[in-house]
Amino acid sequence: MTLQELFFDKSKPYHLKILDALPKDAILQVGPDNAENTIIEFMDYFCGYCKKIHPELMQLAEERDDVKVVFLHHPILSESSNILAKMAVAASIQGKGMQFHDEFFSMQGSITQKKLDEVLDKIEINKTKLMIDIGKDEINSAIELSSFLANGSGARGTPAIFINEEFVGGYIPPGKLQGLLR
Questions:
Q1: pLDDT classification of 116: cutoffs 50, 70, 90
Q2: Residue 94 located in a structural domain
Q3: 20 to 30 A Cα–Cα from 137, which one of 39, 75, 92, 174?
């Protein structure tokens, strides 16, 4: 997809073109592909508001079969954020990206090496393959592209959320979020 198509082609809504622009492994999704409502959250694993909204988004996707929630990486808070984003994409290659993602946002307290190891053991990830994959250029490119798209969408922090065509920067309370759905 070219930048011209992404920003100026009006044949498809912009928020859906974002998903077309990214490699499959960079997209973490719950809910059906053909859902009437699409929520896209650009997030960072060290963002407190991303952690706060995560169970609310997961519950919404679980309760409504007309909603899909897509989590995209925008690791802006630290280098550790970038490393965890790369690990999530590498976990996706093993078919465990959403499990990795959910475990991190369900974690109590700070993220530590011990907790990271526990998550990797719990989701039964091949750690050797994961460590090899996080060093690949395509993983780094996927994270950079996701952040580029976040910035191009107007994200100045995280969470940054599309609810269908509506873009909202920052945390959205559940009631307001529900009100923006079709």
A1: very high
A2: yes
A3: 39
